[in-house]
Sequence to fold (423 residues):
Amino acid sequence: MGCGSCGTQGGCSPAGCKSNGGCSSGGCNKLNVYNWLSHTVMPDHYVPFDVVEIRFKGSRKEFFRNANGLELYTGDTVVLESEMGYDVGQVSIAGELVRLQLKKKGIKENSDSIKNIVRKATDKDYEKYLEAKSREVKVLERARTIALMMKLEMKLSDIEIQGDNKKVIFFYTAESRVDFRELIKRFAEEFKLRIEMRQIGYREEASRLGGIGSCGRELCCSTWLTDYKLVNTSAARYQNLSINMLKLSGQCGKLKCCLNYELDTYMEALDAFPKGKTVKVDTEVGTAIMVKTDILKRLTWFVYEDKHSWICMPLDTINSYIEMNAKGQKAPELVGEQVEPKIDADGFTAPYIAADLASDDITRLDKKANNNGKKKPYQKHKGPSNRPNDGKGPQGSGPKPNQHRRPHPNNNQQQNRNKDKQG
Fold:
């Protein structure tokens, strides 16, 4: 049978592993957990833990109590208690590993919020479950149309119809508070179901919908990431990344979670680099300023004040030179691989081009082009003319349209004919 959270139909056949759902991680479902205690031999008179983790559509998981002592394994379809009717889900984890999941979520083992597992799902239960899931696409499409007609500032990202086909949960995102009381009435009249609206964040929305990241792999939040930590632009600065929000943002519109993965490594490597906004080294031939660093390779680039060549120096050598300056001694001349600045077609070097790009004047390139003898860009005339007044119009109006007009060639021929007739 097909997975409840993947896009396969007519049987589960993962496109990647081709093992028909028999992977050690449980198949192609989202946020799978490998139960590494499943093959452990338990001691005698051991009572199995009665709380089971159940997986629903997308990345939603909840905990239920196995009060009837059913023998459950990962992937089993079960019928669960609900506030109204019953629901259907699949077992994600069973056994002692659930204790760790409860502790991670901050849920007590004897909490009253944990509902019970009714029974294992029969063929009739599963058929009704598939019937409910088949309605989700049409219901979501119609619900979005109604929300647009009511001009509500919200986005319906996903829905989930309960296994008994009596209740539907709408997951939506919104920038501010939304009054959807009238919307719920319209939904109840349209779909004949009990309506529940549940607001989610943009990261959770991307987790539910899934997708492929810029790295070419499936989104982390859809496969294994469960907690979303705060990501700042400082993480990109510490890693010498360009602050380009189009590249740093994920499909959720927020900064990518992977910016934090290697941040600790970069922070540890940055401790060895000299601190300060501007790092200078006094040498025997002049003062050199640090213009670039390669954190992982532990390399630095310096440039003298009166030169344009960049000199590559190892970090350990620079640190020793800075210690010499701190003692009042001048360091020897920087000797290393030199990188010459690039010169463009107009004869400007890279430092001057960088300075031009930092200017706010939008005509900075036009001025340089005019100095080289090129034509000025066309500018549409606005306002009164600055040409002197010819006395035939108001001040600043300039010549009339008929004046200074270029004569037509036929006019000269007509004047010559008149002279011949008179002669």
In short: Residues 51-121 form one domain. Residues 1-14, 21-27, 348-360, 381-405 have pLDDT under 50 and may be disordered.
